[in-house]
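Notes from the 1:1 (GR / supervisor)

We went over the backlog. Supervisor wanted to see one worked example end to end before approving the batch request, so GR pasted a single chain during the call. The sequence is below; no edits were made to it. Supervisor asked that the structure be written out right there so they could see what the output format looks like.
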Amino acid sequence: MFPPTPPIPEELTLVVDGLTYAGLAFGPVDAPPVLALHGWQDNANSFLQLARALPDVRLVALDLSGHGQSSHRSADATYQIWDDLPQLVGVLDALGWAQCAVLGHSRGAIIATLLAATQPERVHTLITLDSMLPRPAKDEDFAKTLRAFLKDRTALLNRSPRQFASEQAFVERRARMGEPPLVSTVLADRALKPCDDGFAHRNDPRHNGASAVRMNEGQCISVLQALAMPVLNIWATPRQGLEDDIARQRALIAENVPNVTSVDIPGHHHWHMEPEPAEQIAAAIRHFLV
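Structure output shown during the call:
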């Protein structure tokens, strides 16, 4: 079994290409290295429970750019799923990791997959939680997607951060969007900063906008076929309303990833942040890493 409370992490700050990446480090410095990438609108705190259940690895969980305590990108930059890749390579260099396992959840799983596909010499193992690919776009939607991006960018670029009267108000808002209160409670510490009227959301509002470009199915297949390392693909079940999308994604993964292990663990999309499912996920990871 695991300790009763999450371990106290080390705070990390790494500057790469002028961007500050904040993060949390867990475990012995000489243990097998694991880079953990969180999902959309989450932060490094999302890996607290998994770190507790994986005491024998050196797990570094980042706040990705525009999330938590990490830098926002400049006004001329974007938050496409590939935009963090050059800096993530720089993070590995700064950590002194020639190779590591990469663990990602949701949007972070997609970024982790892109990193592994393009940097196989740096990523010896890929572990994805409840995602691996974006939903493939239709070629005929390219112009419409780009138009939506330009419209959203204009609207969001100068938008002030959302404010909350209290941390509880933040938790309640995310609960109204269907998220278990435990999840937003765990995230709140890194998601909010004090302001005159209570708390302001740290995340860059541009993360709420449309993507400029979305990968089509052929590009997704190209990425999957480039994954030469062992891949562990863990899914939360059931995912009501997304059955067809997930079934298609899993079919593409099974057909195109040379060395993939797929595991189903009951729970909601953020189930890795709750103690019992986190232990089940960690057990699958430990078994896979042996």
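Supervisor's comment: The mean pLDDT is 94.
Batch request approved.
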